[in-house]
């Protein structure tokens, strides 16, 4: 209801509002009852670019956005319905869009809009009903101890992936070996119970 929407909007504003900007707007959108989650068929990318499926759900979402923000000069890139995509829209412009391989028209539309379409094999996960948005973790919002964003200003983002190599593990982001000698010793084996 309206009260729930107001609370959700206020929470989003409090979480994501930047201190140096005077306003942060949240737009509430309606969806059809049979629509997938909004983020699976509607998103943002690049500089003032909307991404949406070219079906009833995507067209409805774009129409609502344009009515809520009539003065925005926004470009709309329509993708094939069912095409999984993942865009990185943050305080910094990101032109990379992961897009499901096999949707050539969508890849071409993204490229024509000046976006960097990165085809990703996703057909097996799509058959299982898993979307990119539902399972891909975006690390762009994580901050390091120094307060700098990961992947910002030309630095390569740290990838949370560990590969075992001999007696040490290797973090791919910083290429820092983690020796097992620095780890605490394993606990002693349990003592057998008396018979």
What strand line-up does the widest sheet have?
1-2-3
Compute the number of strand runs: 9
Provide the β-strand percentage band.
Answer: 15-25%
Structural class: alpha/beta
CATH topology of the largest domain: L-arginine/glycine Amidinotransferase, Chain A
- Largest sheet at a glance? 3 strands, mixed
CATH architecture of the largest domain: 5-stranded Propeller
Number of domains: 2
Condensed summary:
This protein has 195 residues and is α/β, with parallel strands linked by helices.
Topology:
Layout: H1 2-16, H2 38-41, E1 42-45, E2 49-53, H3 56-68, E3 75-79, E4 85-87, E5 96-100, H4 104-112, E6 116-120, H5 123-127, H6 132-135, E7 162-165, E8 168-171, E9 176-179
Parallel strand pairs: 2-3, 5-6
Antiparallel strand pairs: 1-2, 4-5, 7-8, 8-9
Protein name: RNA-editing substrate-binding complex 5 protein domain-containing protein
InterPro entries: RESC5
Organism: Paramoeba aestuarina
Task: Walk me through the structure.
This is RNA-editing substrate-binding complex 5 protein domain-containing protein. Residues 1-148 form the RNA-editing substrate-binding complex 5 protein domain. By secondary structure, the chain is α/β, with parallel strands linked by helices. The chain has 2 domains: 35-135, 5-stranded Propeller (L-arginine/glycine Amidinotransferase, Chain A); 145-185, no CATH class. The chain is built from 6 helices and 9 strands. The chain has helices at residues 2-16, 38-41, 56-68, 104-112, 123-127, 132-135; strands at residues 42-45, 49-53, 75-79, 85-87, 96-100, 116-120, 162-165, 168-171, 176-179. The strands form 3 sheets. Strands 1-2-3 form a 3-stranded mixed sheet, sandwiched between helices. Strands 4-5-6 form a 3-stranded mixed sheet, covered by helices on one side. The chain has a 3-stranded antiparallel sheet with strand order 7-8-9, with no helix packed on it. A hairpin with a 2-residue loop joins strand 7 (162-165) and strand 8. The protein is extended and about 80 Å long. Mean pLDDT is 74; it is low at 140-180.
